[in-house]
Design brief:
Shape: elongated
CATH architecture of the largest domain: 3-Layer(aba) Sandwich
Structural class: alpha/beta
Strand content: 15-25%
Strand order of the largest sheet: 3-2-4-5-6-13
Number of domains: 3
Largest sheet: 6 strands, parallel
Distance between the termini: 43 Å
């Protein structure tokens, strides 16, 4: 499915604001740009019309006239501690910033206020940015769906409840990524493949669990048990301890993130379990958590830096009125290392 900026009829226009306020479009424009050549009555009526329609001023055209760079915002609706601890965010931002630097657009980063998230929403809705990137492991609030009706927005994950929404998403195919990792374990001879999932309150967590299940079902294998993790090494370690306490045995484990896999590997080694001789490990994310362990971890590279670049590319095209796919998948690549070596 494709949409264009011009086809989104629900987006209020300057003309609609002027008609509702009972003024000319030039008067409405002068109010929005802060011109002193308007009456207080016109300011009041235009302001009321903007609020009623949810109109966001198009700063792109004015930026060109003033020869100012257009700004796009990357919004992170995550707790600050999680943002700084997870390399995923740094990699996506790095890719986004690199791509933005090759354009006429500048990138600004906003971490949602934990105590007052509405404050951050207001920053985006004031018209100071040409568009927004929403990047979060978790669901975006309803406010971002509303924002996308009046401002170009690209999401880094399709939020729960947004399956049928007319929004733009750039993300990895999590089902396919999990299936690629789990399938690799099956191909190397594993017959009891367990998994440590990402948080199941995230779409990625649920989709990666589905990919693991689908792969084992297609291979005619019974699952080797699963436990939920939390995207941290400590969470992966705790989940692995719970797996080992279960009656189920397993000869391989798919771990839904490299951070968790590094913690899970440490627990196996502390129990005298050899990797890959006794238990093979495959994971997702090709970062230092997958390369710094002994043995290094086989992983599916989710190309997170490329994801950041693709998000900015899609947003710039939306801002400029081009046709953009509503859903774009980032490529994935299997990287084989010693944790699954035969």
């Amino acid at each position: 499915m494709q949409t264009t900026a011009s086809s989104r009829s629900q987006i209020p226009t300057l003309r609609a604001v002027a008609e509702l306020a009972g003024v000319s479009t030039s008067t409405a424009s002068r109010v929005i740009t802060g011109s002193p050549q308007v009456t207080e009555d016109s300011v009041a009526r235009v302001t009321a019309a903007i609020a009623e329609l949810g109109y966001v001023p198009n700063r792109a055209a004015r930026s060109l006239v003033r020869r100012q760079p257009q700004t796009i915002a990357m919004m992170i609706p995550e707790r600050t501690a999680e943002f700084f601890a997870d390399p995923y965010f740094a990699e996506v931002i790095q890719g986004a910033a690199a791509y933005a630097s090759s354009t006429d657009y500048s990138l600004t980063l906003l971490i949602e206020s934990e105590s007052d998230p509405e404050k951050t929403h207001q920053v985006l809705s004031r018209g100071n940015v040409g568009g927004a990137l929403i990047l979060s492991h978790h669901s975006a609030s309803e406010a971002y769906f509303t924002l996308s009706r009046s401002l170009p927005v690209v999401f880094g994950v399709r939020p729960p409840g947004g399956e049928d929404a007319d929004i733009h998403v750039v993300d990895v195919d999590n089902v396919a990524a999990a299936a690629l990792a789990a399938g690799h374990l099956v191909e190397r001879g594993a017959v009891r493949v367990a998994t440590i999932t990402a948080p199941l309150d995230t779409s990625a967590g649920r989709e990666r669990l589905q990919g693991w299940r689908d792969t084992l079902e297609s291979a005619g294998l019974a699952p080797g048990g699963w436990e939920e993790g939390d995207y941290t090494p400590a969470g992966g370690a705790a989940a692995m301890r719970r797996l080992l306490e279960r009656a189920d045995t397993f000869d391989a484990v798919f771990v839904a993130s490299a951070q968790m896999a590094s913690g899970a590997l440490g627990v196996l080694q502390s129990r005298g379990v050899r990797v890959p001789e006794d238990v093979a490990i495959a994971t997702l994310d090709n970062n230092y958590f997958s390369t710094s362990t002994t043995p290094p971890l086989t992983t599916v590279d989710l190309h997170t830096e490329e994801k950041g670049a693709m998000m900015v590319q899609a947003l710039v095209r939306l801002i400029e009125g081009a046709t953009v796919d509503t859903e774009v998948f980032v490529p994935i690549t299997l990287v084989e290392r010693e944790s699954t070596a035969l």
